[in-house]
Amino acid sequence: MAFVPPSWCLWFSMPIISVAKPYAFCFPLSRVALVAIDFHRDSLDEGGYAALLGNDVSHLRALIPVAEKLIDACRSVGLTIIHVREGHRSDLSDCPPAKRIRVQGAPRIGETGPLGRFLVRDELGNQFPPKLAPRKDDVVIDKTGKSAFYGTDLDIRLRRLGVSHLLLAGVTAEHSVLATLLHANDLGYECLVVEDAVDSYEPALKQAALAIIDAQKGVLGWRAPSHAVLEALLGQ
């Protein structure tokens, strides 16, 4: 069965992404924000924390031009851009001991690597690649967990801006992106995951995360490719 957007989307000339799954997604342009999750060097670089945990980061780096194009398009139509990164205080007072010791036989949070101390704020690994660097009017959120809402003021900021709809991009699909989607859903936001602007260190886990979004006829939200999102944004 093909799903169509509500008639009010057409009445108010809202952007519509007809190829979105599980059905068409429409949104009021004045109430949308892009949330770019964990595009920092500890997630993406060869010398970062994720790579030194044994992950292949090469295909995640392929997300950079996709994310750059998406961010530029959102910025060009006046959307709020929110950059989220996982990182802890230098004294690790906001890092639960269990989180540090859970990973065995690999570097731990706070230890020092090629990009400085792993997952610690203000270290080189905590910075964004130049092409994805925040600009003056962007919002940067530092989180200590997987969800962008956990322990942050993101929800407060979004409500002050009148945001009701979110476009989600970032890494990893099955961890921080999915956690943020679930949390946002519980808070009442309408979310669309930009499927080729998210990835995982293990491709099968990305596909599993996307399948979760598809399930239950839209209970959790939507997903769509970046080209369809760009067409909807730039066609206005």
Question: What does the radius of gyration come to?
Answer: 18 Å
Q: Bin the helical content.
A: 25-40%
Number of extended strands: 10
Give the number of helices. 10
Give the CA-CA distance, first to last residue.
28 Å
Order of strands across the biggest sheet?
7-4-3-8-9-10
Decide which structural class fits the backbone: alpha/beta
Strand content: 15-25%
SSE layout and pairing:
Elements: H1 7-11, E1 16-17, E2 25-26, E3 32-37, H2 41-44, H3 49-52, H4 58-61, H5 63-76, E4 80-86, H6 97-101, E5 112-113, E6 116-117, E7 139-143, H7 154-161, E8 165-171, H8 173-187, E9 190-199, H9 203-214, E10 222-224, H10 226-234
Parallel strand pairs: 3-4, 3-8, 4-7, 8-9, 9-10
Antiparallel strand pairs: 1-2, 5-6
Overview of the molecule:
The longest helix has 15 residues, at 173-187. This protein has helices spanning 7-11, 41-44, 49-52, 58-61, 63-76, 97-101, 154-161, 173-187, 203-214, 226-234; strands spanning 16-17, 25-26, 32-37, 80-86, 112-113, 116-117, 139-143, 165-171, 190-199, 222-224. The mean pLDDT is 92. A six-stranded parallel beta sheet has the order 7-4-3-8-9-10, sandwiched between helices. A two-stranded antiparallel sheet has the order 1-2. It has a two-stranded antiparallel ribbon with strand order 5-6. It is α/β, with parallel strands linked by helices and 236 residues long. It has ten helices and ten strands.
Annotation keywords:
alpha/beta; globular; 236 residues; two-stranded antiparallel ribbon; 34% helix
